[in-house]
Design a protein that fits this description.
The chain is α+β, with helices and mostly antiparallel strands and about 350 residues long. The protein folds into 2 domains: about 5-220, no CATH class; about 230-340, no CATH class. About 40% of the residues lie in helices and about 20% in strands. It has helices at about 30-40, 90-100, 165-175, 195-225, 230-240, 255-285, 295-310, 315-320, 325-340; strands spanning about 5-10, 45-55, 55-70, 75-80, 110, 115-125, 125-130, 135, 140-145, 150-155, 185-190. The strands form 3 sheets. Strands 1-5-6-9-10-11 form a 6-stranded antiparallel sheet, with helices on both faces. A hairpin with a 2-residue loop joins strand 2 (about 45-55) and strand 3 (about 55-70). The longest helix has about 30 residues, at about 255-285. It starts with a strand and ends with a helix. The model is unreliable at about 310-320 (pLDDT under 50).
């Protein structure tokens, strides 16, 4: 598993990183302080004119070459070419904009892929359903310096410490976007002369909205925890609503194809029954710290799809954005309606 961290320029607050390239900080730090104290000031992104010889004279083209400036341990490196419209952000400017607009210490920060990308994350307001049972999101900024990647802002449940976790975080965001501050939020390109200003506006907006919405979101999860499940029949009813069975094909269906369609329906229903039984088993006492309420049934559901549902392939992608994720959201939808 490649981390693709550039020159050990990586920071994490409190929590160790799997690649152990740097020790976590035991004190909270601003992004600017991290850049100066942990990354030796970082580096500059430089545009140099492309020249050519014409009639014995050096002439400049309108295009330029993008250079990652030297660091204390790495020489300069060419990233590519750009037009005169391209105005790359500077890593230090991104750090200062983060500090000014988010007003929270950085959770993680790092450069990837020879310095072509910068990520910067912070802890969003968390939601404690009950003591020791929390829901946590991370605000994440991603900025590219080689014309291939612009600036991006999103929220995610994944804590970014390398290229792999950044990819997982972006996948989660893509498939959890609700237009209300969760998932993908904003993208910008370096041809925008106000890119840094707009990035700052959006960081401030996202954090402000998260603070404003915290009580509402926590109220929803708390409502699940305060809604008891009174009987086994209620569990069955909820499971049937979330994972209903399909019925025989319509009479308006070619007779030559009816048998195959009926077999397909039988397979689907068998899968639905397995899901119901798996969740019911975990909720009945086999699951981890399951409580006899809607919150406990939701946790039984996520535990089943994350850890117990059989799979011929690695399940992580499906948990993020495939059928497992869709099935978990079915339970969320049913419980949300019933808990009102």
């Amino acid at each position: 598993m490649a981390h693709e961290v550039f020159s050990k320029m990586i920071y994490s607050y409190m929590t160790p990183m799997w690649h152990n390239l740097a020790k976590p900080s035991l004190v909270p730090m601003t992004a600017e302080a991290i850049m100066n104290e942990n990354f030796d000031g970082g580096f500059a992104v430089i545009q140099r004119p492309v020249t050519f010889e014409l009639n014995g004279k050096q002439e400049e083209m309108k295009d330029a070459v993008i250079i990652r400036g030297a660091t204390k341990t790495e020489p300069e490196m060419k990233f590519g070419f750009c037009t005169e419209r391209y105005q790359p952000l500077q890593p230090m400017d991104v750090a200062k904009a983060f500090d000014a607009n988010v007003c929270e210490p950085a959770e993680t920060m790092g450069f990837l892929r020879d310095g072509r990308e910068l990520f910067l994350t912070w802890l969003m307001p968390n939601f404690e359903v009950r003591a020791g049972d929390e829901v946590q999101l991370f605000g994440t900024v991603k900025v590219g310096f080689d014309t291939l990647v612009g600036a991006k802002l999103f929220t995610t449940s994944y804590r970014t410490v390398c290229a792999n976790t950044l990819a997982m975080a972006e996948s989660w965001a893509k498939n959890h976007t609700d237009g209300k501050g969760t998932g993908d939020i904003w993208k910008g390109k370096a041809v925008n002369k106000d890119l840094l200003k707009h990035l700052g506006y959006w960081m401030s907006h996202v954090q402000g909205q998260a603070l404003a919405e915290k009580d509402l979101v926590q109220e929803f999860f708390t409502a699940l925890a305060r809604t008891p499940i009174k009987s086994e029949s209620e569990v069955s009813e909820i499971l049937e609503d979330a994972y209903p069975l399909k019925y025989d094909p319509s009479p308006y269906y070619p007779s030559q194809m009816r048998s195959a369609k009926e077999l397909k329906i039988l397979d689907i229903n068998e899968g639905q029954l397995e899901i119901r039984e798996g969740i019911r088993t975990l909720f009945s006492g086999v699951g981890t710290a399951i409580t006899p309420d809607y919150w406990g049934l939701l946790n039984s559901t996520t535990e089943f799809f994350n850890h117990y549902q059989p799979s011929k392939r690695q399940p992580y992608a499906s948990v993020l954005f495939g059928d497992r994720h869709k099935n978990m959201m079915k339970m969320v939808s049913v419980l949300s309606e019933r808990a009102r």
